[in-house]
Amino acid sequence: DFQWDPIDDKAVDTARILAADAVEEAGNGHPGTAMSLAPVAHLLFQKVMRRDPSDNEWVGRDRFILSNGHASLTQYVQFYLAGYGLELDDLKHLRKWGSKTPGHPEYGHTDGVEITTGPLGQGLSSAVGFAYAARYERGLFDPDAPAGESPFDHFIYAIAGDGDLEEGITSEASSLAGHQKLGNLIAIYDDNQISIEDDTNIAFTEDVQKRYEAYGWHVQTVDWKKTGEYVEDVEALYRAIEAAKAVTDKPSIIALKTIIGWPSPKKQNTGKIHGSALGADELRALKEVVGFDPDTTFEVDDEVLAHTRQAVQRGQAEHEAWKQGFDAWAQANPERKELFDRLLAQQPPEGLEEALPTFEAGGKDVSTRAASGKIINAIAPIMPELWGGSADLAESNLTTITDAESFVPAEWSTHEWTGNPYGRVLHFGIREHAMGAILNGIVLHGNTRAFGGTFLIFSDYMRPSVRLAALMKAPTIYVWTHDSFALGEDGPTHQPIEQLTALRAIPGLDVVRPADANETAWAWKTVLERRNGPAGLALSRQNLPVFERGDGEAEGDTLAHARHTARGAYILAEAPNGTPDVIFLATGSEVQIALAARTQLAEQGVNARVVSVPCLEWFQEQDEAYREKVLPAAVKARVSIEAGIALGWRPWIGDAGRSVSIEHFGASADYQVLYEKFGFTAEAAVAAAKDSLAAL
Amino acid sequence: DFQWDPIDDKAVDTARILAADAVEEAGNGHPGTAMSLAPVAHLLFQKVMRRDPSDNEWVGRDRFILSNGHASLTQYVQFYLAGYGLELDDLKHLRKWGSKTPGHPEYGHTDGVEITTGPLGQGLSSAVGFAYAARYERGLFDPDAPAGESPFDHFIYAIAGDGDLEEGITSEASSLAGHQKLGNLIAIYDDNQISIEDDTNIAFTEDVQKRYEAYGWHVQTVDWKKTGEYVEDVEALYRAIEAAKAVTDKPSIIALKTIIGWPSPKKQNTGKIHGSALGADELRALKEVVGFDPDTTFEVDDEVLAHTRQAVQRGQAEHEAWKQGFDAWAQANPERKELFDRLLAQQPPEGLEEALPTFEAGGKDVSTRAASGKIINAIAPIMPELWGGSADLAESNLTTITDAESFVPAEWSTHEWTGNPYGRVLHFGIREHAMGAILNGIVLHGNTRAFGGTFLIFSDYMRPSVRLAALMKAPTIYVWTHDSFALGEDGPTHQPIEQLTALRAIPGLDVVRPADANETAWAWKTVLERRNGPAGLALSRQNLPVFERGDGEAEGDTLAHARHTARGAYILAEAPNGTPDVIFLATGSEVQIALAARTQLAEQGVNARVVSVPCLEWFQEQDEAYREKVLPAAVKARVSIEAGIALGWRPWIGDAGRSVSIEHFGASADYQVLYEKFGFTAEAAVAAAKDSLAAL
């Protein structure tokens, strides 16, 4: 079955030289790994993976993730050679403005790139999410097919380097991958013993293989240095990949011992070749070593390209064969096919609005986290693509779909949870960062909607993954509860102060902080109907009143309907006379303070409007007329009220504005005491309003 | 040597009941672990650790870190019983406003607490830093004493739970601890198989012991469940601790298999008892089980207290004995004693200003990272307590003290680095988060000054540790280079956009972004002279002009001396006529744009002042007169220029202000192209100034 001809060797050498030439042309970049991994990449793209270069969206494709994203040429060169749409000219424009070959692979920018990588650890951790999604989607569409016989069966391949293996996020995700017995995940660890500070012995001497055995992975080593000579024994790697594929109840890692920069005569096996161009002399010497013309750059033999571009026809044939199985499945599973089509079209289910629970005013107060839990459970029956869980805070985040099973192998069932490999409730353990990366992998793999919960304070632990979601416009959903110092007794280590502002600072992340249970319902609906980026719901621990609202806009003392949540900010309570002297902008649990202050001010003859601001990002998308209506430029007396720092509100309240805010860390006490001590009272809001009026 | 009497059992039961009573009184909290770990804590505080309850600052003390900080009662109850200063009344005020017993242990708030814990993984990871510091300080003061015979030899004890072991930061730090062969570190892993989502089998089934063996730790298991009955075999744990102490070339972890909430009859071994009060009935039942009066709360037998408070005299005697050794050392090592005294007094060395390099204007441009590297090396000879390194970016961050050895065992020397257990150059590998926690541990252990470098973008990876440093006012130093999109070709995954604002949002963190090489020198000096919290230096990858400056304040076209850096913001270039029409506020690499814009405006008859703002936090500390002088309230035409989002500048520029900023992710291209494409030019700054003037 394994065939490797001299033309493959030549293609590999071509790939190496192209990588070195491209970095030389750019003047900077990372040639070393792309050179030494060229045979690995050729093997994957030409001999192993089932992909159709002419259709990078083919659902049945094997996924490829380059976790060591700095070695982007590993991928770009294969995309060129195998006909994915890149051409030689793209390689010549490596790392240049507007090129398809940026420094790191960018999802949505270069066709065929499954995920943006570069921040180390993220790729391999998201690969675990890809493997989660592959299993979950199979469960949605084709749960009963024998293993390996479904059109929804495929593999996730990842290449990772030392940096990926050192990052903690990878440890978290790898522990989960072993726990989940993800037989569809195969990682190749480029064990080259070199990172930027040169020999990794200076900082990285653990036994990686043993560590992965401890996680429950299938671990193999392929040592290209074992003979004392460096022999790129591609067949040994191929056999290891085949063995990995055969192990269906464990993720696999293959530690491949390589020499970085091979066969660069002077710079191989050094930290220098990791991140710098070879230089003219060394590049010439390299070309001589592999028998290329040192006077030529970007040299590609026609015969080589003809050989490697056969990947297109081969891939199309595989795609066609797959389609027969897929069509048979579609015929046999019309309802599942309908779901499949809806997800492919990225459409929410019908009846979403009708499914939303309505929370009655005047009854018991409800925390927005409790409302969120009810909403998730109300939506779940009509939205099988909605799944999620928590980083070991299920009972606090209220993120559990209660009548569903847990997405873990059945043997990990406990007396609280029933495990099912196709289950719907996610358990991340106390691993927020891996949760973020896994969520990214899930939503990039297919079109299911996955959510993950933790305390808002621990958004800090997952921030790099959140940022990547925003950069990729990946529609991940975060359920961040305990969203202010009002979580109370756990004290300053657990009380978010700067988190809302710091999260809003991430371009493209929607931060949604609903004021009551009904806003929470409309917030969920809006998040689920959007797919253009990640969204985080900031939800209260403490109970909040459910506002008595009218059916339309705010008028007199009638509050606006919660559907206005989708606009990001809206007039919740109009100024008593219809013309505001001052405007309160408040979010979440502090909206009730604004309402109370409005009442107190009315008694003093001051007309205050209350604008509820569940999501500044959505509000910014509204047309100017709407924004002017909610926040008329002429009304400069404004007060923001939010249990966090004021900074983010400054553009909205202006020079005359005042903020009821907290500019220091919190404290351990019950939340009523903290509201008083930290000055979050209607009286303080009234004083701020008067102060703002006085500043005009 | 091991003695355990019936009174010890009674003290342990007293500790359990106090924990349960305290949570019941508070109405919420975490009783379960405090109950089941009571015998462990009693063993450590009464039988194992060398501590003097009457002097929590004793340099020779063993350190204790409760990584599972939610079990704060484990520590508080021992602090009460062993006479550290807490009294019964403090336990009765658990989790109450102003009490000494907040929800999580807080450094600087409760005497005896070595470090604030709660965010999981931080404590154990910082414990690694404590162990680093203990070794480094021994190297500074007493390098030649035989092992175990120096007054600077002591142990670091940590208790950690499942959550700590699951968090990725712990994996990073534990890998480093094994690599460093930290024989002075002993961790007890409370392996109780329960976290908030109940049985940890739902998310955590890896082989922890094997994983720690892979890291190179000495691993033991003490199983209190092994007989089928639960037997709190304290002696077995004691023997394991003794064995751990005897292994001096490896950190030790003891997996202690416990039952959470033991011996609560109905709630032991459940997720519920982790984080909720027992409730009246269960609390009564518990008291009956251990033979306490169910009608009494906070019951402490006088005999028990008399027994446990013997810890004070015992500790004082140990302290006294230690002091003899210390005095002998002091006598024999007068120079080292002088250094010791200076560090104890938290004083910087004399001659710091004189040691700073001066960078000549008009010569070659210098990146602020390169300047920083020169400054570190200039200061190093007079400041032996200054040590640090990078998370595998030494050549990029330029954080290496070049003539120093590396802080790793000699056997890990590579052809680039020479290892020495007392070395001064830190190598964190690609582990930014552990770097942050280890730095915290280092500066909390003693008074050395440690710094760690990475790219500014990866401050996101270390954010939870940075926040904890700020909360604790721990004077850690971060060297964050490649501080804007101007890092260029690596593209958006590596280009900070929102990071400066998001970091400034953390209360108590100084973010310092110097404009040129000389500001960098004064920034380092200022950071080293301050000890009241963490500071991060944001430094450029690209070369920047070294400004030609005068000796005093700005006047005419003469720029101000760089010493003004310490004031956080200063008039770098005065308006040409001395009266500004418009003020530029700029930082770092963008200050040169402000200067160019000032010149262009002058040609057009507009008088612009340039304020360099290396550190907003320092500027906010200045008196109002100074602040008014730099930014007169009357001058409302203002323009901020910083290669990041504008948000943080809004309070400083006001409604009429304009910002030259970037509000979206970056791109892969060289930095000159990006400056143009992203509108960071003198022309854009001039236009913004005119726009601001027009808005008045």
Describe this structure in words.
The structure is a homodimer of 696-residue chains. With 696 residues, chain A is of the alpha/beta class. Chain A has 3 domains: 34-87 and 94-259, Thiamin diphosphate (ThDP)-binding fold, Pyr/PP domains (Rossmann fold, 3-Layer(aba) Sandwich); 352-539, Rossmann fold; 562-694, Rossmann fold, CATH 3.40.50. Helix content of chain A is 40%, strand content 12%. Chain A has 28 helices and 20 strands. A 6-stranded parallel β-sheet of chain A has the order 11-8-12-13-15-14, sandwiched between helices. In chain A, helix 3 (38-48) packs across helix 10 (234-246). The longest helix of chain A is centred in the middle third of the chain and has 23 residues, at 310-332. The radius of gyration of chain A is 28 Å and the shape is elongated. The relative contact order of chain A is 0.09. The model of chain A has no long low-confidence stretch (mean pLDDT 97). At the A-B interface, helix 7, helix 8, strand 5, helix 9 and helix 18 of A face helix 7, helix 8, strand 5, helix 9 and helix 18 of B.
